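Data availability (excerpt). The following record was deposited with the supplementary files.
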Amino acid sequence: MKIGERVQVKAYKSDGTCYRWWYATVEAVEADKIVVVTPFGHLVEAVGADWVSEYAIRAYYWPGRWYSLLEAYAPGGELAEIYVNIGSPVEIEDLQLRFTDYELDVSRKPPDEARLEDEDEFLEAASEYGYSKEFQQACYQAAAEALDLANRWVAGKVPEVEA
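Predicted structure:
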C-alpha cells in the first residue's frame, strides 16, 4: 500500500461474515501500522442498511494488535471521539484491510475519560460464537490496553481528503 491509494476496509463477524465495508485513503504506511482517512459524508455499506457518516475519520491499524483506533471529527473540525475497536489484528492484502470485530469497544469523548462500551454485545457474541474463557480474557486484556491508549492518545488534525 502506498500513500494516497484508495483501499477497502472490511469488518467481519466471528463466523466469517463480512457485515460492514467502506473505502478509505492511505495517509501513512509505517513498519508497524497503516493509517487511513475517510472524508465527511463517506458511505459505509453494511448488511441490512448502508449509511453516510457524519464524521471524518482517521483510523490506525496495527497488524500485531487486537485493536484499531479511530479519531472521529465533527463537521466543524473538532475531535468528537476516540473509538477503539477490539478485534483481530488487521490483515492487509492488496488494497484491502480486513479484521474480525469481537464486539467489545472503548470510547473517549473529550474531555471525558475513556470507558468500555458494548460489553452486552460482546457477551452475546461470546455466547453465539463460543468464545472460550481464555479468549474472553484476552479480549478484556486488549480492552484494558485500549482504555489506557485512548486516555493517552493525542489526536491529529482533521483529515483532509476528497470524498
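Summary of structural features: The domain at 6-152 is CATH 2.40.380.10 (FomD barrel-like fold).
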